[in-house]
Amino acid sequence: MAKEVWRFIDSGDGSPSFNMALDEALLDWHSEGKIPPTVRFYGWNPPTLSIGYFQKVEKEIDLEAVKRHGLGFVRRPTGGRGVLHDKELTYSVIVSESHPAMPQTVTEAYRVISQGILEGFRYLGLDAYFAVPKTEEEKADLRSPRSAVCFDAPSWYELVVEGRKIAGSAQTRQKGVILQHGSILLDLDEELLFSLFKYPNERVKERLQRDFKKKAVAINELTSRTVTIEEAKEAFYKGFEKGLNIVLEPYTLTAEERAYVEELARTKYESDEWNFKR
């Protein structure tokens, strides 16, 4: 039987607002039947702190530190916690909830979509596996996370290597469409990451940072050679094809599509109303 053809977009390094606007536009276009299911790869210029849809900026984020380090800032349309997008490959997957390969529950859909990421890690020679919280303490951590940092603990079916989280993803469902996007870390600056959040005191910050080292890892900490972004793209391109049993067909946005995304970026994802008022 012929494999289903999905669209593939490598949009390169985009601004924080453009990146989130394109993910939203792809969700809308797919819901309207204008485009097939889509896998997208992207990067960030400048490096950016993104926060989850429900996070409270004033309570959790040190905006002065974000500015001081010259970082971008944007609120995602998906849940989850704060992510520093820097030396990473960011991906998104847009597919209908009614797609025959998609389970109805969020966690099971995570597992199916993330199979593509799992296979990508295997192409890089890493023995990745899905995290399944086992103990009551792990399950409690998911219900009430200890910190505002995304990679602080693996959620259901997130990717783990040697016991540490290596990719973080978030999902939203709107208009009958699943949007899942996430970060695949090549390198990680923990000092910078932990300087961007607010803590009750320095001792708490130090403890969380110490714990974090045991829970999260980047690809280049685990490999004997440095994996480049191009190598990562190739591995995860093949990973998504294998993991989802699809064929990816590269696509470039038209001038009209790009203009639509840029307008959405400007009016929504660059607005204080969206980014700060929760």
TrEMBL record:
Record carries keyword Aminoacyl-tRNA synthetase: no
Enzyme class, spelled out: transferase
Keyword Acyltransferase belongs to the record: yes
InterPro entries: aa-tRNA-synth_II/BPL/LPL (IPR045864), BPL_LPL_catalytic (IPR004143), LipM (IPR024898), Octanoyltrans_LipM/LipL (IPR050664)
Pathway: Protein modification; protein lipoylation via endogenous pathway; protein N(6)-(lipoyl)lysine from octanoyl-[acyl-carrier-protein]
SUPFAM superfamilies: Class II aaRS and biotin synthetases
Domain BPL/LPL catalytic: 33-248
Pfam families: LplA-B_cat (PF21948)
Highest rank taxon of the organism: Bacteria
EC assignment: 2.3.1.181
Annotated site, Lowers pKa of active site Cys, chain positions: 165
Subunit structure: Monomer.
Function: Catalyzes the transfer of endogenously produced octanoic acid from octanoyl-acyl-carrier-protein onto the lipoyl domain of GcvH, an intermediate carrier during protein lipoylation.
Protein name stated in the entry: Octanoyltransferase LipM
Species assigned in the record: Geobacillus jurassicus
Gene field: lipM
